[in-house]
Amino acid sequence: MSATLETRETCRICNAGGLELVLDYGPMPLAGGFREPGDTGPCEEFPLRLFRCPRCTLMQVLDLVPADRIFRAYSYASGTTRTLREHFAAMAPEIVERAGARGEPAVEFGCNDGVLMRPLLAAGARALGVDPSDVALRASREQGWPLIPEYFTEELARRIVARYGKARLIAGANVFAHMDDIHGVVRAADLLLHDEGHLVLEVHYQGDLVSLVQFDTVYHEHLSYFSLRSLTGLFRPYGLRIADVRRIPIHSGSIRITVVRERSGYPESPAVRVMEDQERNWDIRRFVRLAGVRRAELRQLVLRLTSDDLRVAAYGAAGRMTILLNWCGLGRDLVDYVVDSSPLRYGRRVPGVDVPIAPPERFRAAPPDYALLTAWNYEEEILAKERRFLSHGGKFIVPLPVVRVAGAARSGRLSRYAGALS
Predict the structure, then answer these.
(1) Start-end ranges of CATH 3.40.50.720 in the chain?
(2) Inter-residue contact 126 to 105 (CB < 8 Å)
(3) Cβ–Cβ < 8 Å for 70, 32
(4) Span 155-205, pLDDT tens digits
(5) Topology classification of domain 78-282
(6) Which residues belong to CATH 3.40.50.150 in the chain?
(7) Which of 152, 151, 181 is closest to 15 using CA atoms?
(8) Is the pLDDT of residue 283 over 50?
(9) Strand order in 224-225's β-sheet?
């Protein structure tokens, strides 16, 4: 089933018209819309198109699915991934110290299962979570950290200030891209932020999306793909400036920015100007061309394997997996199942392609010949965890940034398939 919903006509940062179409995926299911075992009805699909603003350079999805449809059965839990747990455990004390937030109010919006909240509290901040999802509500009750189960709005910011005071630290990790009204979020942060406070955001970086051909990270739940230039333009009207930026490897390429008030005494890092200059050299046409090439290569490889009666499963049921399988036409006839470590997804099925999601026990008990690493952004962690699978002859297909087979040099037959792509 396909539905046409509200479509923006202008850029959500600078309000410019005439946005340029980058990729049209056609009708796609919601990336996190995993289907229950008894659900036999038609799968909801929505137009998915990626545009780029020629003025501020923001990449964005303009076909808007209402938030309550996206998040009513939200199943993403950050803390199931060791890489993310370690990342946020290291991040928290650093940003608390830099913001002078030890013993001071701090707010994390989009706090999910508390993977950053817990180390923020451990670092001494008086941290408060803001998140409307069931995942956050369940985690806050089980783990004992404070939560306001609402969206981060101006009205909520006023209530927080009235009760707790201005925040020395406001954090949002991999949540900023979910919001259509990002100006509303910035206005809320402006109301809540202390005069010398820090707004620290981590966002998937458009530069890495382009250079690594990450077509699979575009989906309805992620509305914006930021350049530093676009973020600078977002904050400037509110008297806010980006004082620091850092490249980080999370999600195969993100940036962490520190935003302060224009009049703040916090200095600007030279890295800000360097990155803005580097962004002038991006090749968007190369990204579009290679996305089509990688799509064809991956489908060709899986078809070759299955035609030789080799079993293929997928590894990792994150949102990007839904788009990868659907856009590449890899359904249940080609992929046996998807293994995932989140109990929230066990027994459900990938929308659109109807591939079942299984716990790690199935992967251990009946391993496939090849595992398509749909969570390819965690390749190092997964290959280290699955040494037994590899030592017993199992092989991983890594779909991006180039299609390759992990460990190809150890198998003559494997080299044959890998060579077909060169």
Answers:
(1) 285-419
(2) yes
(3) yes
(4) 999 999 999 999 999 999 988 898 899 999 999 999 999 999 999 999 999
(5) Rossmann fold (3.40.50)
(6) 78-282
(7) 181
(8) yes
(9) 20-28, 46-52, 59-61, 224-225
Q: Which residue matches tokens 């350049």?
A: 227
285-419 placed in CATH 3.40.630.30:
no
Q: Hey, what amino acid is at 26?
A: G
Phi and psi at 384, nearest 5°, equal -65, -35
